[in-house]
Amino acid sequence: MSGHPLHRFLRPEALPTTFCPGCGNGLVAGALLRALRRASLNLEKTVFVAGIGCAAWIPSPHFRADSLHVAHGRAIPTAFGIKLRRPELNVIVIGGDGDIAGIGGNHLIHAARRNADLLVIMVNNLVYAMTGGQVGPTTPHGLPTSTTPYGNPEHPMDVARVVAAAGANYVARWTTAHLGALEKALVKALGREGFRFVEVVSQCPARVGGRLAMSPVEAMKWLRARAKPIGRVGPEEIEVGEFADLDRPGLLKILGEKRDG
Fold first, then answer.
1. How many domains does one find in the chain?
2. Strands 46-50, 66-69: pairing kind
3. Is 93 in contact with 76 (CB distance < 8 Å)?
4. Which pLDDT value is given to residue 13?
5. In what helix (H) or strand (E) does residue 34 lie, and over which residues does it extend?
6. pLDDT digits over 191-223, tens only?
7. More confident position, 61 or 2
8. Neighbouring residues of 3: CB distance < 8 A, sequence distance ≥ 6
9. Angle, to 10 degrees, between the axis of helix 105-114 and the axis of helix 159-166?
10. What is the per-residue pLDDT across 76-103, written as a single tens digit (0 to 9) for each?
């Protein structure tokens, strides 16, 4: 655990990871660690909060920082409680689409509405992966899952657009096939106040790739081929880019001004 500049962010006893071979969570973790390094963020003043799911294992037990694993869907309110009590800390939420947009969807929308001072990273692998590959809020129409074996009859939630419409300061979406752009978005988000949301559409070799007979490499090629810039997407394509880029004061600053005034 020496020699690489990112090793100082990792706990040596937590490696190798337990992610499935070809899982996108390792790619997201690497992009986040590079962004933390570029942003010169002090991990001693950073807390990671995660709920339940595969992506929730990105910070804990891997990152050499304080982290909390909380109830399913409750990472955002727990994180904001930390931020309210310790406003000097950097608080980052990491979770999957089932945890953040499904079970915790109400918390997500209202944290964005409040412009709460948090960074939320949602790894969207299209299903409830850890619990068996069930259909979720972001599952594409027609995709077969363990609970919709003949294809999902519903249409998915466009989480990035919902969060932007709710009032977040910064919203971006990329895929694991766009790591350079993802890293830049994370650096930008780390430097902002208020509510920041970065969605990462990721391959899931166990629950999605296995059902579609698609290898992780093929899945990443599929993601890159279907990712299109904002406003230029067609049916079954993935809209990527920045959906909100505002500079409004975060909720903590507003509360402070009201208290002092």
1. 1
2. parallel
3. yes
4. 80
5. helix 25-38
6. 999 999 999 999 999 999 989 999 999 999 999
7. 61
8. none
9. 40
10. 999 999 999 999 999 999 999 999 999 9
Tokens of 115: 């412009």
Short-list 124, 123, 157, 115, CA closest to 29? 123
Output phi, psi for 123, to 5 deg.
Answer: -90, 110
- The answer to whether residue 12 sits within a structural domain is no
Burial class (CB in 10 A: 0-12, 13-18, 19+), 158: middle
* CB contact burial 94-117 (16+ within 10 A = b; e otherwise): bbbbbbbbbbbbebbbebbebbbb
Flag whether 8 is in a domain. Answer: no
Q: What is the spatial distance between Cα 31 and Cα 235, in angstroms, rounded to a whole number?
A: 29
Q: Give the helix/strand (H/E) hosting 241.
A: strand 238-245
pTM: 0.96
The CATH code of the domain that includes 197 is 3.40.50.970
Show the domain range for 64.
Answer: 19-260
Structural domain includes residue 11: no
Cis peptide bond N-terminal to 216, omega within 30:
no
Report yes or no on 1 lying in a domain: no
